[in-house]
Amino acid sequence: MTTIRDVAKHAQVSVATVSRVLNQKGYVSKQAEEAVLAAIKELDFRPNAVARTLYNKSSRMIGLILPDITNPFFPELARAVEDIALTYGYTVVLCNADEDIKKERNYLEALKQKYVDGIILTTNQLSFAEVDKVGVPMVALDRIIGDQIPTVVSANKEGAEMATTHLIESGCKFIAHLRGPKGLATADDRLHGFRKVVEKAGVASIVGEADFYFEKSEQVTRDLLEQHPSIDGIFASSDVTAAGAMKAVNRMGKRVPEDIQIIGYDGIPFGEMLVPSLTTIAQPIYEMGATAARLLIKLIEKKPIEGSYFELSTNLIVRETTKRKEEIE
Amino acid sequence: MTTIRDVAKHAQVSVATVSRVLNQKGYVSKQAEEAVLAAIKELDFRPNAVARTLYNKSSRMIGLILPDITNPFFPELARAVEDIALTYGYTVVLCNADEDIKKERNYLEALKQKYVDGIILTTNQLSFAEVDKVGVPMVALDRIIGDQIPTVVSANKEGAEMATTHLIESGCKFIAHLRGPKGLATADDRLHGFRKVVEKAGVASIVGEADFYFEKSEQVTRDLLEQHPSIDGIFASSDVTAAGAMKAVNRMGKRVPEDIQIIGYDGIPFGEMLVPSLTTIAQPIYEMGATAARLLIKLIEKKPIEGSYFELSTNLIVRETTKRKEEIE
């Protein structure tokens, strides 16, 4: 195997010079740099990533901690993070915390041990203090952990307002909101957007706690509809939650959208696969993941960033679970 | 920060002895080992993962290369691999190749550079020769790359036979199979299972190429049904493919299962979320991922393995896209 010594010998420079070229640290003359690069090419020298990690305390690895890899929203996000990271020469270590704070802590420790250069968090059970201890740059994605951690989210309140307005414009008179987990800023913001619109419009409303789980959503929807048979619209806080609501409505012998209109939130491809296909508020998922990755890499490389809070716009996608204009009575 | 020197001093042994204990290599007296372990505990010493990697040429990391993270089958597999790996103290580096052979090659190189201890491949575009060059243990999961690489798959042919038999027993007279990608052993095996049963039963059949993609499946199903309006059963080679078929049937104004019965293959939670919920052949997804992870770790740790080809049984799950006994004419 070619070593750094072979490269130095071939380029007729010292090992220290080769090291400076490899790590882009310290002064190297243009002539020496060219000789080293030529030697690296001729000898097909591949610097040992682990040795470089030890020297630089940098691994060119990014940790991405996800709350639930089986919710298709997160693999979509992960794909974007990975795409951008690869472009800049970083590898992504994907960690699925399964909504378990112990697993989140284990991952933080493991990532620290491996000298990852930075971490993207899409979980929020950990406190800022715990996260800060790792001592590497962090970005919060689709979660808000604290002012101190740069954050990328979608405009959740505005998105929820758009969803609720769409249901009202489609003729709904009694709207249920299936909210996400309490204390989760993104879910709380969606609830606030919903409340603002129904209160302003004077439309009857009710809120159920579905978290982001399909089974729970199906159960909660069934309970709500049994207690309030006049509910004719549902705004679900995620697309998976919306699928649970659709299932419940269908099992109760009611029709979507004729009897009950449903709108989701996320815009994952999954919504298109449902029958009828799901009307939803699309988050710019790829852009969110890409923005977070670019932001983190800038922080890692100590480059200036243009802000520390990025709120990306959402988009109403009307499909088949809400009525078309001509169908509204 | 506590160093290996501090541990040696505290335990009153040499640094070399501490190193031997940490790496479980070479002779250490029981007394010395106990002293070192006690010192490690008292001083809360955490060996530097990167330094250990360099010494051992081992990183306690496993690479998992996935073909398409947005197909929910793969996150389910990844979760199982990760669970088992963590239990044994390994971190999983997840690599999404997006069905792109260039990305697969880049990942192989990146994983090699990071001294991963082993790789699990669920892609099969790379040849055995390319994969072998990395020089670490490998396991093929849900894919067959060659006799030389230990393999974990489900019993694809038997599963396909079960699916086709179920459609025939449910009254289907003309069955379409939406096959997976050509040359992919798992997809080919499912096709063979399908052919064997329709030929033996003398039932009319046709095969469409849907790969494993929703949109392609929707299009292919539409084409098949337009050309052959008497098709009354569809065996799809994956659950996502089945969802595409359901969408096409629905868009053409036909009903599932009354007009056309559909069965999928995979058994991902997604199938349960569809309306009507999807009858399918469930692969033991978690068990497959767990088996592959355990097998790889045994290979890494040079422990004996019980075989190099593991074919796990599948299971028919009857839901709502096929008819119940009392509905069959």
From TrEMBL, chains A, B:
- This protein's source sits in the domain of life called Bacteria
Q: Which UniProt keywords apply?
A: DNA-binding, Repressor, Transcription, Transcription regulation
What this protein is called in its record is LacI family DNA-binding transcriptional regulator
> What SMART domains does the record point to?
HTH_LACI
Q: Which GO terms describe its molecular function?
A: DNA binding
CDD domains documented for this protein: HTH_LacI, PBP1_Qymf-like
**InterPro entries, per this entry?**
HTH_LacI, LacI/GalR-like_sensor, Lambda_DNA-bd_dom_sf, Peripla_BP_I
Q: Where is the HTH lacI-type domain?
A: 2-56
